[in-house]
Design goal:
Shape: elongated
Oligomer: single chain
Number of helices: 5
Strand order of the largest sheet: 1-2
Structural class: mainly alpha
Helix content: 55-70%
Number of strands: 2
Distance between the termini: 41 Å
């Protein structure tokens, strides 16, 4: 049966057996955190386009889900029925209701179009921002960014 040695207990001969035992007995000295300062002087165009596309898709999905949830909450709380009652009282017509003016399918279709436009516009704006930054680096020299180790 082998015995397990703890790092704080010396071996039977009085000397440390492994390198790990020797290193564990050293007094812990704080390591100085090294700070590195780098300049961001170039952004790859296709990386920026891919990143802005993914962000725009995520925002489009959020918009679509938010409109779906808002419509569901308004429909389940009876807000549309109350608005329909108000329209009937104001207009005097029994045929005028909210569901005749706008439907769930129309709202979701419009939201889908807006989300798709958001993806296109967001991607184009990301590409334009990348090009403008790469052009401005020639004048400004870039952005100085500091990184710290540890």
């Amino acid at each position: 049966m082998s015995s397990v040695k703890s790092p704080s207990r010396p071996s039977e001969t009085g000397q440390k057996g492994s390198v790990a035992d020797k290193l564990s007995d050293r007094s812990p000295r704080p390591s100085a955190a090294k700070q590195v300062r780098l300049k961001l002087v170039y952004i790859d165009f296709w990386s920026a386009v891919k990143f802005s596309f993914l962000i725009a898709v995520a925002i489009g999905i959020v918009i679509f889900v938010a409109v779906l949830l808002i419509w569901t909450v308004l429909a389940s709380t009876g807000v549309f029925d109350q608005i329909s009652t108000l329209l009937k009282d104001v207009s005097g017509s029994d045929t005028l209701t909210v569901s005749n003016v706008i439907s769930f399918a129309q709202v979701m279709g419009f939201t889908l179009v807006i989300a798709a436009l958001n993806v296109v516009v967001g991607t184009v704006l990301g590409a334009i921002a990348c090009v403008l930054y790469n052009l401005s680096v020639k004048i400004t020299g870039g952005i100085l960014v500091g990184f710290k180790n540890g």
